[in-house]
Amino acid sequence: MTVRMKVNFKGTEVTLQGHHVEVGESAPDFNVVDKNLQTVKASSFQGKRIYVSVPSVDTSVCDMEIRRFNEEATKYKDAKVYVISMDLPFAQQRWCGTSGVANVEVLSDYKYRNFGQNFGTYIEELGLLTRAIFVVDANDEVIYVEYCEEVGNEPNYEAALAVL
Questions:
Q1: How far apart are CA 64 and CA 127, in angstroms?
Q2: Dihedral, CA atoms, 102, 92, 98, 78, nearest 10 degrees?
Q3: In this structure, are residues 141 and 151 in contact, taking their beta carbons and an 8 Å threshold?
Q4: What's the CA gap between 28 and 43, in Å, rounded?
Q5: What is the pLDDT of residues 145-164, one digit of tens each?
Q6: Segment 106-144, tens digit of pLDDT
Q7: What amino acid positions are annotated as catalytic residues?
Q8: What is the C-alpha separation between 38 and 31, in angstroms, rounded?
């Protein structure tokens, strides 16, 4: 359902635009850009997957979160982790290279901005994505959703991973 959800960014209330995704619905489709500036369509993704929405790979909490999912991804051979931010692909690729992150796929919503709209993670006031987790099963059904109430807080990793 489309609602104007509110979360906090450094204690200040901000507005999330777009479709508020709920457990049980079909995962919305979207287009993002990979490190080679190629368009990637979510409809091409197969199997179980986790969409990790983050404000920027260049922040400390996002760094910790992506590293954690990168580590966890090795334990779940039948699931793929996609990290999505508004960062330019150049910055994402640089960050992954210097951080040694290779088990998750980092994608950018900078060009189409429809991941943020279709999953309700676009922060109206900042032009960034909020911190959120979506787990999708092999049938494209959303089986877990977490929109972090405070953008600067880490998500509940255990809850998201438990549904896999």
A1: 22
A2: -10
A3: no
A4: 9
A5: 999 999 999 999 999 999 98
A6: 999 999 999 999 999 999 999 999 999 999 999 999 999
A7: 62
A8: 10
Cα–Cα distance measured from residue 58 to residue 42, given in angstroms and rounded to the nearest whole number? 24
pTM for this structure? 0.94
- Residue 46: count of CB within 10 angstroms of its CB: 9
Q: Can you list the alpha helix ranges (DSSP code H) found in 74-140?
A: 89-99, 114-118
Task: Assess contact for 85 and 54: CB atoms under 8 A.
Answer: yes
Beta strands in 54-118 (DSSP E): 79-85, 105-108
Q: Locate 117 and state its tokens.
A: 């709209």
Q: Residue 12 contacts by C-beta under 8 Å, 6 or more apart in sequence?
A: none
Contact criterion met (CB below 8 Å) for 134 and 145:
yes
Distance (Å, rounded) from C-alpha 54 to C-alpha 74? 20
81 near 105, Cβ under 8 Å? yes
Tokens 């994402």 belong to which residue? 92
Three-class DSSP category at 138 = coil
